[in-house]
Amino acid sequence: MTGTTPSFSAFTRFLALTALLALGMHAQAQTDPLPSWNDGAAKQAIITFVEETTMQGSPKFVPPAERIATFDQDGTLWVEHPMYSQVMYILESVPALVKAKPELAKVAPYSTVLEILKGDRAAIAKLTLPDLEKLAMATLTGMSVDSFSAEAKKWLAEAKDPRWKRHYTELTYLPMQEVLTYLRANAYKTWIVTGGGQDFVRQYSEAVYGIPPEQVVGSAVGTKYGYARDGSPFLTKEPKLLLNDNNAGKVEGIHLMIGRRPHMAVGNTSGDQQMLEYTKAGDGARLSMLVMHDDGEREYAYGPAQGLPATKVGAFTQALYDEAQKQGWTVISMKKDWKKIFSFE
Amino acid sequence: MTGTTPSFSAFTRFLALTALLALGMHAQAQTDPLPSWNDGAAKQAIITFVEETTMQGSPKFVPPAERIATFDQDGTLWVEHPMYSQVMYILESVPALVKAKPELAKVAPYSTVLEILKGDRAAIAKLTLPDLEKLAMATLTGMSVDSFSAEAKKWLAEAKDPRWKRHYTELTYLPMQEVLTYLRANAYKTWIVTGGGQDFVRQYSEAVYGIPPEQVVGSAVGTKYGYARDGSPFLTKEPKLLLNDNNAGKVEGIHLMIGRRPHMAVGNTSGDQQMLEYTKAGDGARLSMLVMHDDGEREYAYGPAQGLPATKVGAFTQALYDEAQKQGWTVISMKKDWKKIFSFE
């Protein structure tokens, strides 16, 4: 027996060990990436899409740099009922505004908001979309970008949803979190494309979804550059809507901020319709999905024939459902497709 | 001698080999990341900045997610004389416009452009910034985003710089390419923040700089979503400036598109001043740099006391140089700091 043979055999054992490890990793890669999803068309559509677009040699292969997936937020990644959390934030910012300008207390929509905050929840129905825009502009105008961040962060750390008594940031859908993680593990860049305020969502997108601020496209007002008394530069929010990131605005926002057509998009109302049709109209593999809120027990039931009031900006109407069928978008039934909705269940 | 010892010794040898490999990798990491830079304050400032912000435990450590570096393009990453390449593109798009609307041939600024293209280079001086904006709007309005991409790509593949007789995309500065690569190897996200057209720069940013389209912030017009006769959706360019990405607009654009203050910024004219001061005013380690064009032999000499005409949008004036000194920005002398300017030298 020479000195070579045993070390060679040791090397063989090392190789075998490496192979075993590699097999282990492979086995791990084969475990279910979407454990909170029930088997069905929606889950299968996601897995097929990811496999077809990422497997080398696949006719539908998409180079990593072009792997863009966009997600609406309210109602798609987290709860939007009974009211968008950002609307609650705006309403709860009104008392400070009224304190600074007491004459507003008797003027609508400020007076309506004060009623709502005193407990008259039904008064929310009186607020129109232009009212909300007016309130949003009034509460943020002239605020520095840094003060806005600090106040939004403070509110998010304190405010709680009335039904679950949990922070809004806990009310994300576990199955969608799994989709985000699965896509990123396959070199997809995940983006939020929301009708909500871009600067608001950026305060928590990284901590809550693993999506960095620069991958959040949302409604945005302009800012103005200026200098403090000590000469240090800062940005102030201006009452000028730069991007209304709803409906066609979502596609325009995607072009402005991303510059490529997504390969996958998920939404839940007619405010997402254009994003879904634009995504689906691209060549190669494209996946458009609609989240349907049909689980009145575990979450809320609204949309086609559910009888619950539509959300302010868009709605999941029968027409939208028909459009999904016609264009080949995949509908996700929260009731049937999701084993678990929240991680705290 | 048992069977264990030799395999153990083989394992030891394996460990030693691994250690050697690791050392080799370490040695490689120690090789000069900026070989086209001469030793000096500018090179040292870059290396110190990267080491201080990326070494675990350093008091100036910056978490990877916050590592943002922004670069002006014209005059900072590539040649901007005698005229921005995009301005050449716009001028060379005018004949097609005049062909479609012959009445324009006798109206300024279209008539001026036709003179320039016939060979009267001096006539370029007649064009004002509003003229250029007017031409840009006229040549792109009503064009679909996809047609714009295709035409810009075609032009870039054909057009050549008059001095070097090379494609514009070959005229990037090798030392700056090294900085981009060095930053990315240290988990920095590199961004272009240009006064040039966002959609124009996005056509080549990935191939030329390794910077994907979504990391290009530039001047941008609005787009409008619509449908072709066959029902397929598309975006058309609108004659409405959404973002004028010059001066204070660069900081406003950074907030809109990135949402974080950069840790490093590089520019070369007063059009970059606000970006550089905003970057430098952040807490922790911040590096602001100004490229000074002082090499009339290898490139061009213009700026403080160089006598060459300033570029249209901004200029490297004596006042800007003084500002750099006052605020602690690092000035890069192309003549002294750069061993090589172009890769083809």
TrEMBL record, chains A, B:
Signal peptide: 1-29
Keyword Signal: yes
Keywords: Signal
Pfam families the UniProt entry points to: HAD
Name of the protein described by the UniProt record: Haloacid dehalogenase-like hydrolase
Organism: Candidatus Accumulibacter phosphatis
